Amino acid sequence: MPLEDELGDILQKARDGKMWSQDDLVKATDISGEDIRRIESYQLTPENSVIEKLAKTLDLDGPALIEIAQERWIPKPPDSDPDFDLVCLNVFMGEYPVNCFLLRCKETHETAVVDTGANPKKIISKAKEMSVCPSMILLTHAHPDHAGGLGELSNAFDCPTYIDHKEPKPRGSSNFKIVKEGDELTLGKLRIRCIETPGHTNGGVSYLINQTLLSGDVIFAGSMGRANSSWSDLFNSITEKVLRLPDNISIYPGHGPATTVGQEKNHNPFFIGRVG
């Protein structure tokens, strides 16, 4: 699976953190506006010296940004967990791929859906193939690409939907359960810890099961999510919560490949040197 974000995406998100326009970046770097526009629209991969200049100006790690720009880095897949099966379903909202998950306790076969995508039929079909009927739906946030299939899944599985107390409830369920920081849910023999990770949305939440974090759109391999709610909240969610977890923790984001805390601390241009 390719990285979710390319060089242009990373630059845009770094600009957002400074509340800069493209013109502001032009003034700070003396790189032409046409080149900035072409870089951010994936039409130009500049020389490494230009990437280094952009990285320094935008508080990014230059060598890591070059590795991503030159498509020389992708995370190694995390180890699987012996206590549960985690099936990633790459569903689409239009042409946009979204990661949804079926989480199944190996001992009891109790199963949860984590994010619904906008194409619930694929999840329903996979659940039938696995001979499971999910007993809960866990939402990391309420954006349509992550919760658009809620109504059909709620009808198919007749189970509650869990969502953070600060997140607006999407349509499709009449059985919401509200979670907050530190809450613990039970799925068979599994314990699922709720970690509030706002910034992409006001009520974003990640779910920690053993050594695995299902993180929604907070962090991507080699990048961070879009700060629709608050850039500073999103950055702090990552640096104070996600990347404070042990290095061996697996991260399964809402888009792009899985990674680990250790790999992101060492390869993500936003966060190298930002976490002790």
Assembly category: single chain
Can you identify the CATH superfamily of the largest domain? Ribonuclease Z/Hydroxyacylglutathione hydrolase-like
CATH topology of the largest domain: Metallo-beta-lactamase, Chain A
The ordered string of helix (H) and strand (E) elements is: HHHHHEEEHEHHEEEEEEEEHEEH
C-alpha termini separation: 29 Å
Number of helices: 10
Low-confidence stretches: none
Question: Mind telling me the CATH class of the largest domain?
Answer: Alpha Beta
- What fraction of residues sit in β-strands? 15-25%
| Radius of gyration (Å) | 19 Å
Provide the domain count.
Answer: 2
Helix/strand-derived class? alpha/beta
Strand order, biggest sheet? 1-2-3-4-5-6
Overall CATH architecture of the largest domain? 4-Layer Sandwich
What's the average pLDDT?
97
Overall morphology: elongated
Tally of extended strands? 14
Biggest β-sheet: count, sense, barrel? 6 strands, mixed
Protein described:
By secondary structure, the protein is of the alpha/beta class. The protein has 2 domains: 7-69, lambda repressor-like DNA-binding domains (434 Repressor (Amino-terminal Domain), Orthogonal Bundle), CATH 1.10.260.40; 84-267, Metallo-beta-lactamase, Chain A (4-Layer Sandwich), CATH 3.60.15.10. The protein is 31% helix and 24% strand. It is elongated and about 60 Å long. The model has no long low-confidence stretch (mean pLDDT 97).
Secondary structure topology:
Elements: H1 7-18, H2 22-29, H3 33-40, H4 48-57, H5 62-69, E1 84-93, E2 96-105, E3 111-114, H6 120-129, E4 136-138, H7 144-147, H8 150-157, E5 161-164, E6 176-179, E7 184-187, E8 190-196, E9 205-209, E10 212-216, E11 219-220, E12 223-224, H9 231-240, E13 250-253, E14 259-260, H10 261-267
Parallel strand pairs: 3-4, 4-5, 5-6, 10-13
Antiparallel strand pairs: 1-2, 2-3, 7-8, 8-9, 9-10, 11-12, 13-14
